[in-house]
Design a protein that fits this description.
The protein is of the alpha+beta class. It folds into 2 domains: 166 residues, Jelly Rolls; 187 residues, no CATH class. It has 14 helices and 18 strands. α1 runs antiparallel to α2, α9 crosses α11 and α11 crosses α13. The two termini are 44 Å apart.
Length: 436
């Protein structure tokens, strides 16, 4: 059951030590009497922590209250109302949460950030900056909102089996944006009791005041200031990086469309560790993976390995991520010229554009050396896949090669099912991987 519990530092510091030792050490070194309130919240998979200007808190009865509504207890209002228009300062203690945006006209969901244990969010509020782009246009959910099943799961006949077994109300999903709501209903079905939840620690206003005004807490305040400086430096570099694309002439001979240029820019941002792609889930940190896979194997009777794709960044925990022209992880807002080109033709054109950008950023060392884009182009490989490549000389590999090169697509306890090489995701797929 989702819950909210009032605690103090000594009740939870052992968990903080495990997920964010630097923050733990800073707080311990203040030598303060740490009796200021903290709130430990637990959210089931798919539940909203916040949406635009609303913050949701569990009320210990399988319901959620909006912070600041007339249902909010006075004690909670006193401690957390400072974050009412954005978010209270919070830390993720276990599992992952996803920050995402929704295209209200199409219902499309695009990941903005995926963050796990030790992450401290809404750090701006320390400096009285309680409004930000993320707080007011981005929603936050417990678990991976953008998760989807790689093989097709829209069959009415097969869906009826899983629907009857778990007493579901959801119709077969029409697209990948509907998968997570189906997963959520499946997990919360009356037939089972799943214990998956993300655990969030909220800091009361007394903590914020100590950090802001107590001289003993200056190292803690500097910690947050440095975190924000690094983030704003990255944002500044992105504008310079975008300008670099405008001044690169090597791609002009390919007569690229705005859509393909913006796609190439985003794929290179993934290579830089800034953009988000997708990768196969291999554990239960983003959602109750094993239960979902079991349900689709035994009751939906899926013909293929039930691989679940989750939003992922190229970092120390992921040495390969994927971007799909058919199921993109970002909204490409530039106009897509209707030229009746197949995805395969677009993939070839995109390959030429990306390689031209890479060549420019690698060779023009006096201008780019030491930059994130220079380092990415020299340490990351970008490969192109399709489920029906027509000519090996065009540099497009068969999607089956992904299964042979990435062990994450193989599920040890489900060996009898085949790899869904014809999945929509692979009909124009780009693999971004760290060079070994």
């Amino acid at each position: 059951m989702d819950s909210l519990k009032k605690i103090v530092w000594n009740d939870i510091k052992h968990k903080i030590l495990c997920v964010n030792k630097r923050f733990y050490d800073l707080i311990e070194n203040t030598n303060s009497n740490l009796i200021m309130p903290l709130y430990l919240a637990e959210y089931s998979y798919g539940e909203l922590l916040g949406s635009k200007k609303e913050v949701y808190l569990p009320n210990n009865s399988s319901e959620y209250i909006v912070l600041g509504s007339n249902k909010t207890p006075n004690e909670i209002m006193r401690d957390l109302a400072y974050g009412m228009n954005s978010f209270p300062l919070g830390m993720i203690l276990n599992n992952f949460c996803e920050w995402y945006s929704i295209d209200d006209t199409e219902g499309e969901v695009y990941p903005f950030a995926i963050q796990g244990p030790g992450t401290i969010f809404n750090q701006q509020i320390i400096f009285n900056e309680d409004m930000s782009v993320e707080n007011n246009t981005i929603s936050v959910s417990s678990g991976a909102k953008s998760a989807f099943m790689l093989p097709y799961v829209g069959s009415k006949k097969h869906h009826e089996r899983i629907r009857n077994h778990y007493s579901l109300s959801s119709s077969p999903p029409k697209n990948r944006y509907e998968h997570s709501n189906l997963f959520k209903e499946l997990i919360n079905s009356r037939q089972i009791k799943q214990s998956w939840y993300s655990q969030i620690l909220f800091f009361s206003e007394e903590w914020i005041n100590e950090i802001r005004h107590n001289e003993k807490w200056l190292p803690v305040k500097f910690f947050f200031s440095e975190n924000l400086r690094k983030r704003f430096s990255t944002d500044l570099y992105r504008s310079l990086y975008s300008y670099s694309f405008l001044t690169t002439g090597k791609v002009n001979k390919y007569r690229p469309t705005p859509y393909l240029i913006d796609s190439a820019k985003y794929i290179i941002s993934i290579a830089m560790g800034q953009g988000i792609g997708f990768a196969p889930a291999i554990d239960n940190r983003h959602l109750p993976l094993e239960f979902i896979q079991e349900a689709y194997t035994q009751h939906y009777q899926l013909d293929y390995t039930p691989t679940v794709m989750i939003p992922s960044m190229l970092d120390s925990s992921n040495d390969s991520v994927y971007y799909s022209l058919q199921i993109p992880s970002t909204k490409i807002s530039s106009f897509k010229i209707q030229m009746n080109n197949s995805t395969y033709v677009e993939l070839i054109a995109l390959k030429d554009i990306i390689f031209a950008y890479q060549k420019e950023f690698q060779s023009n060392t006096y201008r780019y050396e030491g930059s994130d884009v220079f380092n990415a182009c020299n340490t990351v490989d970008i490969e192109f896949y399709h489920n029906k490549p027509t000519d090996n000389s065009q540099g497009i590999k068969h999607s089956l090669d992904i299964y042979n090169s990435d062990k994450r697509f193989s599920i040890a306890y489900i060996k009898e099912l085949g790899f869904s090489a014809d999945a929509k995701f692979f009909r124009g797929c780009i693999k971004i991987s760290k060079r070994s």
